Fold this sequence. Notes:
Layout lengths: L2 E3 H8 L2 E2 L7 E3 L1 E2 L10 E2 L13 H6 L4 E5 L13 E4 L2 H15 L3 E6 L4 H12 L5 E3 L9 H8 L6 E5 L7 H9 L3 E4 L7 H4 L2 H8 L11 E5 L3 H7 L9 E5 L8 E7 L4 E6 L9 E4 L4 H16 L4 H9 L9 E4 L5 E5 L5 H13 L6 E6 L8 H10 L8 E5 L3 H12 L8 E4 L2 H9 L7 E5 L7 H9 L1
Parallel strand pairs: 4-5, 5-6, 6-7, 8-10, 8-11, 9-10, 11-12, 12-13, 18-22, 19-20, 19-22, 20-21
Antiparallel strand pairs: 1-3, 2-7, 14-15, 15-16, 17-18
Helix pairs in contact: 3-5, 4-10, 4-11, 8-9, 13-14, 15-16
Amino acid sequence: xxxxxxxxxxxxxxxxxxxxxxxxxxxxxxxxxxxxxxxxxxxxxxxxxxxxxxxxxxxxxxxxxxxxxxxxxxxxxxxxxxxxxxxxxxxxxxxxxxxxxxxxxxxxxxxxxxxxxxxxxxxxxxxxxxxxxxxxxxxxxxxxxxxxxxxxxxxxxxxxxxxxxxxxxxxxxxxxxxxxxxxxxxxxxxxxxxxxxxxxxxxxxxxxxxxxxxxxxxxxxxxxxxxxxxxxxxxxxxxxxxxxxxxxxxxxxxxxxxxxxxxxxxxxxxxxxxxxxxxxxxxxxxxxxxxxxxxxxxxxxxxxxxxxxxxxxxxxxxxxxxxxxxxxxxxxxxxxxxxxxxxxxxxxxxxxxxxxxxxxxxxxxxxxxxxxxxxxxxxxxxxxxxxxxxxxxxxxxxxxxxxxxxxxxxxxxxxxxxxxxxxxxxxxxxxxxxxxxxxxxxxxxxxxxxxxxxxxxxxxxxxxxxxxxxx
Length: 471
């Protein structure tokens, strides 16, 4: 983590401070007064419903070495002698501090964005690089305008590689993050339907994701999903830093990094790398996670590993030992032994279709159940998109579709159209309550069944998984 004197920190973030405090050392940075550790710099963030300045006194009492403070805001008498760094805007000062710290580090940064799969790809890249380097990766959901700066400031000066996830909901957000992180390699996993409400179209999403290229180091690598034509089209209109190298990955054979002989199981996937003219051609890899979309994510991790000089054998070792962040196609067992694929972290139409395809590819189960919740932030076409998602489920892919939530009534209607005469009260069922859905399914679930559970974060669909696990 950052370890600097108060004087150095003030210079890095453009702050004014009490000169006699210049020798105080800062060890780490935090924004949550409830989790202050000794020596930290406390950054009071100002939100619509809270003001971190109200907690500065407590943060200092709990061990923070100093705190930022917005200029023009009255300093309480009890803080008159406290070590405060005066800045115009505490959030912008945090971001400036992180950008300055990153410039001082000799670290290779891999920035990852995309509508779907960025967390899984981050985990895969970190697993691959961890076989040869000291790696730090984004933890949890620290991938936004606050989380990414905090992640950068967590880096030790001995860190070799930082794998940084970059999330967004609107234009300009990825541009901000990439200009803080200054990646050596930028990865775009795909373009989906998330944030249509803010960005208006999938073309807008492609444009927003390609903002990651703006912060690339000179002669850096932009690695993007070549199966997505919108990325190729938008890339032709996107100015790139000098010497940027472009490589593609994906399931189509014309990508720089593609896959052959894909085998998908309930808990793993295997594939051979197709890269004509290179040593990787024909190399076989296995990942402990199912789905063709995850094979595509793994190709990106392999490409990053090879770029940084990691051997195929080390990459195989890293991917084989992969541990994914929770609720991303996470296999768990129901109370009676039935297989549950917990994919409840988030959802949008592209991600749900990929999960449905996965279920369709899996064999050996008595019955396959697809459990879907509402998808949020889809804009004015949300009803249509839910209907189309339901219609994407065919009787060949799954025997039953259970839905929950107001918008998911449209999902059920779409599934009924797809199932046609096969639709009945046990194959297409809508619920307005997760507990009712879980209880209904639990009463019908057999030990050799498969259940996929997916929905937007706000739906908390993992509660269904927890009920099925507990029995």
